[in-house]
Every structure is written in C-alpha cells, then in structure tokens.
Amino acid sequence: xxxxxxxxxxxxxxxxxxxxxxxxxxxxxxxxxxxxxxxxxxxxxxxxxxxxxxxxxxxxxxxxxxxxxxxxxxxxxxxxxxxxxxxxxxxxxxxxxxxxxxxxxxxxxxxxxxxxxxxxxxxxxxxxxxxxxxxxxxxxxxxxxxxxxxxxxxxxxxxxxxxxxxxxxxxxxxxxxxxxxxxxxxxxxxxxxxxxxxxxxxxxxxxxxxxxxxxxxxxxxxxxxxxxxxxxxxxxxxxxxxxxxxxxxxxxxxxxxxxxxxxxxxxxxxxxx
Amino acid sequence: xxxxxxxxxxxxxxxxxxxxxxxxxxxxxxxxxxxxxxxxxxxxxxxxxxxxxxxxxxxxxxxxxxxxxxxxxxxxxxxxxxxxxxxxxxxxxxxxxxxxxxxxxxxxxxxxxxxxxxxxxxxxxxxxxxxxxxxxxxxxxxxxxxxxxxxxxxxxxxxxxxxxxxxxxxxxxxxxxxxxxxxxxxxxxxxxxxxxxxxxxxxxxxxxxxxxxxxxxxxxxxxxxxxxxxxxxxxxxxxxxxxxxxxxxxxxxxxxxxxxxxxxxxxxxxxxxxxxxxxxxxxxxxxxxxxxxxxxxxxxxxxxxxx
Lengths: 273, 307
Fold this sequence. Notes:
The complex is a heterodimer.
Chain A: H1 7-31, H2 35-40, H3 53-60, H4 63-95, H5 101-110, H6 120-129, H7 136-140, H8 148-159, H9 162-170, H10 175-183, H11 188-204, H12 207-212, H13 221-229, H14 238-272
Helix pairs in contact in A: 1-14, 3-14, 4-8, 4-11, 4-13, 9-10, 11-14, 13-14
Chain B: H1 24-27, H2 32-52, E1 55-58, E2 61-65, H3 69-76, H4 78-109, H5 114-125, H6 131-142, H7 148-155, H8 170-182, H9 184-196, H10 199-207, H11 212-223, H12 225-240, H13 244-249, H14 261-270, H15 275-306
Antiparallel strand pairs in B: 1-2
C-alpha cells in the first residue's frame, strides 16, 4: 500500500514480533542454566550464574553429530536427486514429443493431490519387503517421487523461448546436449527455488524417517531430537534438552538469515501451485 | 530436421510441430527416470494402500480380504470419530487465526523500509524450524513450574496450569504452538498478492481524498480475495494433517483430547500393527484432503483466467 505506515499498526506489529521471539529467547536462556539451578528455583533463568555445561554435554555426546551428518546426507541426496529427475522430466514434458506425453503429464499432476498419509503404509511395507529400512536409500528414495519439481521445471522450460533450442538444433547439437549445455543453465532460478524447498522439506521431514529409521545410528536430526524429547518427564535433563533445541534450530536459522529471499520465494512458490 | 526451421518462429505453439516426431520413443528417455520413481514410490503405494484398506493385515502379513469391513468398523469406532472431531476442531482453531493474522501482518509490513524487512524476517523465521524443535520449545513454554507460562502466571499472582495435561486446554495450546510455527506462510502469500495490486488505483483514490479505510475495503481487499481463498484452502489442507505436534507434545492425550486423524493412522499402523485398519483411515483422510485440493485447483485456475 502507498502512503506512510500507520503508527498504531507498526506498534502492534513490533509487539507481535516480540511475542514471536520470546519463546526462542526463553529457550536460549534456559539452555545456559545448570540443571541443578533450574530445579532449585524456577525463576533462576533470569539471573546469573549462567553456564555452558549443557552445550559441552552435546559436544561430549557424538550421537547428535551423527544425526546431523545423516540429515545432511539425506537432505543433500534428496535435493540432488529431485533436481536431476525434475530437470530431465521437465525438459522432456515441455519440449519433446513422445507417445502418451499429455496423458503421462496429467497423471503426474494428479500425483500432486496425493498426501503422504495415503501412501506411507504401503511404502513402509515395500521397503520392509526389500529389507531396505535403516538405510540412506530408504530415507531418500520416497522424496524423489514428489511431482512438484516436475511440474515446476516443466512450467519453467515452457517459458524459455523456443528460438534458443532451434538455433542449437541448426548446429546439429543432440537433444541431450541442448538440454545440458544450452537450456539447463537458463533454469538456474527455478533450480534454486526447487533445491531450497526440497532441502528444507527433507531436513524437517519427520514422519517417514520416524518409521523407516528405527536404528539410533540412522536417525535424522528431527527424529533424534524427538527421541530424546520422549524422556521429557524427568526434568533433570531440561537444560540439556534446551541446549539441544538451540543446537538443532540454530544452523537452519542462520542459513535462513543468509538465504532469506530465496527461501521465502521457494516456500511461497511451492504453496501457491 | 531442417524442415522445422522453415516454419515461422514468431508465435510459438505450446506443442512442437508434428514433423519432429522421429525418434519419439527415444525422447521419452528424458522422463523415464522420474516416471520409474513416480510409479514405484507413489502410484504403486497408492494402489497398494487402497488394497490394504480392504484387507485384515498385521505385522506378519495379509490375513484375508474383508471388503469394506475396515471402513464399517472405523465409523463405529468412538476413538476414530473423536479424532475426526478433534481434527476439525484444530482446523477451526488454527486456520481462521492464521489467515487473519497473516493478512494483518502483510498489511502492516508491506513497506519498503528496513524495519518492515526485519519484522518480516522475524515472523517467517519459525517456519524454517522442524516440528521437533518447535514442540521442544513450546513444551518448555507450557511447563507449569519452570515454564514461561508458569513464570508469567506466578508474576500475575495466579496458580499456573499444566495446559498440555488439561483436557480443554491441550488442543488450544497445540493450536497456539502451530500458529506460532506456521504464521510465516500466509503472511508471505498475502504480501506477494499485495504487491500485485496496481499502484495507480491508490494514486487515483488519493486524488479523490479517499480515506485509508476506504482504500483498504474498496481496493486492497477486493484485489486480493482470490489469494484469501487460496490461503484458507492451503492452510486447511496443511492443518488437516496435524501429526508431529500432537504426537510430541501430548501423545494424543489427555484422554484422546488431542488425538488427530494422522496420529490415529500412525498408532493403528505402527503401534498396534493393524495395517488394513490404518490404511482405511488413511483413505478417509485422503478423500477429505482431495475435496480441499480440488477446491484449491478450481480457485487457482479461475485466477489464471482472470489475468
């Protein structure tokens, strides 16, 4: 909207932003308290002494790093896979003619409406039958079937002027070469959007890793944090739990601060389709 | 191949000319890798899920075909019916609030100023966190003694309540957590829509000495009403799938008050190993989401036409 901002609206927005931040600051504060101090006095978060012992506890426990490594492998693997498959398929659907092309594309689009719940039980059985649970293959493969990437890349390839490939065809370049050398570099914005969206969804995915990775060593970070959260009842570990929450949340928040523009565009773009 | 270039290049058709059909099966190789994954990970499991919903099965395998018995049992299962009611209640608690707050934030922060950018960053930051971090944070906030809510309640001279252990307060507490987690998406969707409203409209209105309120109700809101509808539908679909928050914060309790449909599916499938029963519940959820998704498609395609 044009015009000067309404002071009342700004004040309310600032207040809401503070409310937004309070839970996060609270957790950071508690993560800096020793468990003994927290148990002795529930208001102790507001005054010294503060300590880093909870964070030292995380570094002393290699498990969390294992989970982070798993999350990285799974998220990067899924991102690479989705980008490759979607780019190839997007080019094929947008530019090439082959039998049943329209029908196949419609079927893929229909897949957009299928929620995870409708397929997850059967997927779990399939991977059980193949004895593939507790492997990176099992954690990555289902994510590669999401039709959103194909839809996005097809739209993007369609938007590239056809003169560009026609000129390359004149030079007798093969289809694969045109795809790889001429068109793919032009799709960078779409690749960035799709890549960020895929990485973020994979990093934060919960249900599938929860049922597929049952071995502690194959947990992703989300599942690992959930498993330690289960013994929440014993308050002795409260400070340690909070340190874990900070430790798990901080990297993605830092990444967000740096790539904010792309992340917002990717998330909004995915929802708007 | 050269014949393709004899055609005028200016108005480009969506489909390539028929002349290039040679080697057309080979062209399908580009889409084949994806189609294989699509078939194995989506199409086949979808069909298998339908089949599973018609059988009685457990950890060790399929027992026998039972037809629609699973569905009939679901409709008589008071726990399942309660999860349906709980899920609708949760959607009712979250979707209007998310839509309204998202719209208000977008209206307040649609300025090209540094402070507006900072506030937008803050409101979107929770969206990038995983459900496990979000629930960990909020379980701590809701702790009656050491929690933030407890500290505030005592400061106000009240006795703190353990909201997550309270039958009537547990679902609202999960709703608050969810609104905090998800507010970023509706906000950015509304912001994107606001930026599409032609500036000239406001300039013309300003010339007519229109008030701020008039501009909002006569120009802004009518211009973004399709986005409004889209946000509502997207959020209904998202919040219908409540799972992680309920599983991690309350385990569906107390007394099933926060058990959602998805949590029911998870527990039937992986706690009690009643695969057919879980699959049947999943089909019911699927049907509900499909209705919402079709509404989304209709709204989205109408928007395309009006451009």
